[in-house]
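Re: weekly structure request thread

Next one in the queue (612 aa):
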Amino acid sequence: MERTGSRTGPPTRLSGLLAVSSAVVLAAGALAVTAPAAGAADADLARNGGFEAGLDGWSCTGGSGAAVSTPVHSGTSALKATPAGSDNARCSQTVTVKPDSSYTLGAWVQGSYVYLGASGTGTTDVSTWTQSAGAYKQLTTTFRTGPATTSVTVYTHGWYGTPAYYADDLTLTGPGGDPVAVPATPTGLRAGTATASAVPLSWTASAGATGYRVYRGGTKVLDTTGTSATVTGLAASSAYSFQVAAVNAAGESAKSAAVTVTTATGGSGGNDGGLPARALVGYLHSSFANGSGYTRMADVPDSWDVINLAFGEPTSVTSGDIRFSLCPVAECPGVESEADFKAAVKAKQAAGKKVLISIGGQNGQVQLASTAARDTFVSSVSKIIDTYGLDGLDIDFEGHSLSLNTGDTDFRSPTTPVIVNLISAVKSLKAKYGEDFVLTMAPETFFVQLGYQYYGSGPWGGQDPRAGAYLPVIHALRDDLTLLHVQDYNSGSIMGLDNQYHSMGGADFHIAMTDMLLTGFPVAGDRTKVFPALRPEQVAFGLPASTQAGNGHTSPAEVTKALNCLTKKTDCGSYQTHGTWTGLRGLMTWSINWDRFNNWEFSKNFDAYFGR
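Done, posted below.
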């Protein structure tokens, strides 16, 4: 949230991902060789190298690949694969080979920076590439297997930030290896603790397996290379049956014995804080003035169910010492006395409203880098809550408040002090004030949904360490969380679960961003690290109340379309949601003051839509 009106949102293409290093390019180019003629006894070992059977036998990262009918080199189909974000659209298959033998790998490719290679050779892995192929061009390379090598992985891929590439007629010629046996059926399938919408599963590895398929009620729901996965998008209080099968180049094993799991009830995890089924959340500029003008607490209309006081801010970035006071008279001539303000808070609470202190905002950078800062945060926030008799806390950490240290790669078990200490501090506050303590969060898309593509500095470094940095906080506090309302504004384009980029300002953006929270998603594309779905009652989405309030203002008509799609599955446009969430809690806006400035257009539309 910001004190002023609009500002430029964070970029979505992270530094270090898009630049193609000349050293890498030269090194890769040096590997290109002229292929010798294959021996008479050699066979083409690649399965479905012409993609005439679609992607049968092939695995493409991030769902990046598809078989297309044009352009093709020969036959009726070819591979089209599209790089996106940190995914270079790698499509591969594992092939059985003989030890200590020579092989020739070839393919016809079209596009910019298309690579062909082989890994796991047991000697020197190889790769060749073309910088710009406007029409199909043949790539070839050779390698020799090691003395113990029985399989290699052949692959194609593009480069970060480039358009789709095409590949066709991929061949691997050389002596065939011994037949691969179908892997054994996995054993030990077990379920972890289920939430209302997700079930974590794990099993024992099967010898010879290169991957696994998870089935729900006999229908495949996901593929993974690991021995664990989380199935999301489930209904609360419902029984589900799961099985898993092992796969390799020879095929798929029989399915494992089934395990039956019942998801938690819709009311488990988190608390509703006494909110109505449909809640409208707004920020009240209580400590400062801007072009929207000052609004007294007593003058806030009954439309607003949650009133977040903006803002509690630290005495310094790392102190953890949060302070809040009413706007000075010189800055806000209409400000009420502190006694009147406290009385108005009590009156709102008597009418069933919740009043929270919001910590952070655009200017309030908070980094709890030490346990001393954590403890000071708890004591100072407690003092504000007690002084004004508030109902809870809103976390609006922005800017550089949250970032992940290098090597902190799993949102389920964070190690970065500013993350760990914030989680601990909030749990302490919840323990102090009890079950009725209202906890809300207002992260930007950069810190949440961008985590679908990027998480922290990434496996190779060079990414923005703030990417997805709210995910471990949300996940660790999901059982205490009343409401998450991501700021769907001041944002760059963000990739949705359809692997397409979505831009703010219309219904599509709110639909795609909210669907991610209600469906769950693999973090940084890793399907062994799935961020579980939140309950619909825990989710709202945030918008600017007027064109002056921030970039990404959405007209009332587009807001209505978004609500229709998410709660009724109508007016969805091109994006198809993964469910229908009648329990979606509501909307958040920046801000009550800007809504008043705009003749209450935002809140009037909300009340009209829900018949309040």
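The CA atoms of residues 321 and 379 lie 8 Å apart. The chain is about 15% helix and 30% strand.
Next request, please.
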